[in-house]
Amino acid sequence: MHTLIGKSEAIQIVISVLAITLAMAIVFAGLDGALAYPKEFVLFLLPILVTMGSGFILHEMAHKLVAIYYGARAQFQMWIQGLVFMLVMSVFGILFAAPGAVYIYAEKITKRENGIISLAGPTLNIFLLLIFIVLQKFAPITQYYSFLAPWGNDFQGFGILYGALSVWQFGAAMNLMLALFNMIPAFPLDGSKVMWWNKWIWGGFVLLLLILGAVLIQPGIVISWGIMLLLLLIISRIFFRGGPK
Fold first, then answer.
1. pTM assigned to the model
2. 8 A C-beta contact, residue 176 and residue 157
3. Keywords for this entry (predicted)?
């Protein structure tokens, strides 16, 4: 009997989700903060797992399900080098979220199908973003972590205010960041394949993400991410004219 997720794939998924959860926690807590407040750090892993961990793996599973719908074979594969690099970089306060990805195998797949498969992941992140915003409105959860206090109010839009963490606001912001990052039009990110398929759909989707960021998270995100996406768009058109293979 065929199963949607095999045992080996399930193990790789669990390892990847736990790794990205740990890396994200280290980025925000800092290695010194994690060592100074070990009990708080362990508790901090739970909201990260629920919000960012779920966003990462459901993003990948969305790719897989849509690929299967189009008749392709798809499997999540852990990238050990990326996983190790992600954990190392987290110690320096940088999140390189690349512990693995869904690999798609098909004899023939059209640009349209490839674009839709790629768009499925960021779309799932928007769905989670909206769920977290609703939860923040009607069932807010706030937790205090000593190692978050130094952030002050710089990340208030991300749910962090002088050590207090608004869990659902944080989850909404992280899923927005995950969607925006993946829509960067540089291969092999999702954005390159969506743009290769339809530039207008890519532009409209990115605009939607920026509007959601301005309205639900913080207005400054429109300027910073807009400039970054524009620069990366120019770079991608120079180096990846032929589109994804």
1. 0.87
2. no
3. Membrane, Transmembrane, Transmembrane helix
List, for residues 30-82, the tens digit of each pLDDT value: 999 999 999 999 999 999 999 998 999 899 999 999 999 998 888 999 988 88
Active site residues: 60
Does residue 47 have a cis bond before it (omega within 30 degrees)?
Answer: no
| Identity of residue 205 | F
The DSSP call for residue 49 is: I
Q: Where are the alpha helices (DSSP H) in 77-219?
A: 80-91, 111-138, 167-182, 190-197, 199-212
| Residues facing 160 on adjacent strands | 165
Residue 123 amino acid letter: T
Among the listed residues 142, 148, 143, 153, the one whose alpha carbon sits nearest the alpha carbon of residue 163: 148
Q: Please list, residue by residue across 230-245, b when 16 or more beta carbons sit within 10 angstroms of its beta carbon and e when fewer do.
A: eebbeebeeebeeebe
How far apart are alpha carbons 26 and 113 in whole angstroms? 37
40 token code pair: 């708080």
How far is residue 242's CA from residue 43's CA, in Å, rounded to a whole number? 47
Collapsing DSSP to helix, strand or coil, 139 comes out as coil
Distances (CA, A) of 194 to 104, 169, 188, 190, 211: 16, 28, 11, 6, 19
Q: Look up residue 131 and give its amino acid.
A: I
> For strand 164-166 and strand 142-144, is the pairing parallel, antiparallel, or unpaired?
antiparallel
| pLDDT tens per residue across span 110-161 | 999 999 999 999 999 999 999 999 999 999 999 999 999 988 887 777 888 9
Closest to 100 in 3D by CA, of 180, 160, 19? 19
